[in-house]
Amino acid sequence: MGRMLQKKKNRSSIPRATQKPKSKRLPIKASPIIAAHWDKHLTLSQNYRKLGLASKINARSGGTEPGSKANQGEGTSSQTHDPLAVGVKRPAETSLKTAKVVRDEKGNISRVIHDEKISNPLNDPLMALETENVNIHNHGNEGVIHALEAAAAAELADVKRRKKPRKQSQREQEWIERLVEKYGDDVGAMAWDKR
């Protein structure tokens, strides 16, 4: 019985409803700088690595392709160290450190002097970056990063230029004048005013 229905469908003049396959590679519309330097044959993480950007803050959970164009000369992910990757391991040992505390006349702490180099008991990767001065943009494509920073600074300046200061309406000015006449400089009482 089912085979007859299939034959009937095949002989029908109405075409089957098919969906067009969606493209997995979407065009880059957000930034013309990134779109100009984007390689359509590489994956997102490979393109970000090539541009000197971080696609993920945490370390990779999977592997990378060892023979890809973006990984040539860099080695595998187990050999390279990402300075921005947040480690999931806890420190094997946490030893207590001592420091000298300098107080002022009132007894407040003004300075803390450490005996050794700056310790990082929580294994904070950003603190390690600050102390080691690791160059994050070591991929040789710093022109893209500088162009993105310049575009962001220009956009911020444009937003600041277009932003107008807030002006009080005539009704707001009258309301504030009545509050000042009633309470004077007591802002707390003005805040509790029910009208």
Main beta-sheet annotation? 2 strands, antiparallel
Q: Uncertain segments of ≥5 residues (pLDDT<50)?
A: 73-79, 133-139
How many distinct helices?
A: 7
- Which band does the percent of strand residues land in? 5-15%
Rg, Å, rounded: 31 Å
Following the backbone from N to C, one meets helices and strands in this order, namely HHHEEHHHH
Strand tally is: 2
Q: What spatial form do the alpha-carbon principal axes imply?
A: extended
Biggest sheet, strands in spatial order? Answer: 1-2
Explain what you see.
This protein is mostly helical and 195 residues long. Helix content is 37%, strand content 6%. The chain contains seven helices and two strands, in the order αααββαααα. The protein has helices at residues 2-11, 32-37, 44-51, 125-132, 142-162, 170-183, 187-192; strands spanning 99-103, 109-114. Strands 1-2 form a two-stranded antiparallel sheet. Strand 1 and strand 2 (109-114) form a beta hairpin. The N and C termini lie far apart (81 Å).
Give a short overview.
The protein is mainly α and 195 residues long. The protein is built from seven helices and two strands; from the N terminus they run αααββαααα.
